[in-house]
Write a structure and sequence with these properties.
By secondary structure, the chain is mainly beta. Helix content is about 0%, strand content about 45%. Strands 6-3-2-1-7-8 form a six-stranded antiparallel sheet, with no helix packed on it. It has a two-stranded antiparallel ribbon with strand order 4-5.
Length: about 100
């Protein structure tokens, strides 16, 4: 597994694929698959059987995971940036390579 540059709660923009240009917040990271689920992006329709949570069953719309390589972190002013790391141990921090500000 490689070191991931994005974390849960980060605001990202999709830079490749069908949903290119869409923005959202990361809700879940799937480290073993190198994928992330972004809120409101890459929506799919899933057929579900009736169960305790959904007694009616039917078609549910939900977010599907997408490759982390297709996502780019957004800075405070809404521009995409690459992520770098500075420091060692407990003082290690992520920073924006475009604006040089701490994320």
């Amino acid at each position: 597994m490689t070191k991931l540059k994005v974390k849960k709660g980060d605001k990202v923009r999709v830079i490749a694929g069908d949903h290119k240009g869409s923005e959202g917040t990361i809700t879940k990271i799937l480290r073993e698959k190198n994928k992330a689920i972004v809120e409101g992006v890459n929506m799919i329709k899933k057929h579900v059987k009736p169960n305790a949570q959904n007694p009616q069953g039917g078609i549910v719309e939900k977010e599907a995971p997408m490759q982390i390589s297709n996502l780019s972190l957004l800075t405070a002013d809404g521009k995409t940036t690459r992520v770098g790391f500075r420091g060692e141990g407990k003082s290690k921090e992520r920073y924006s390579k475009k604006s040089n500000e701490v994320i």
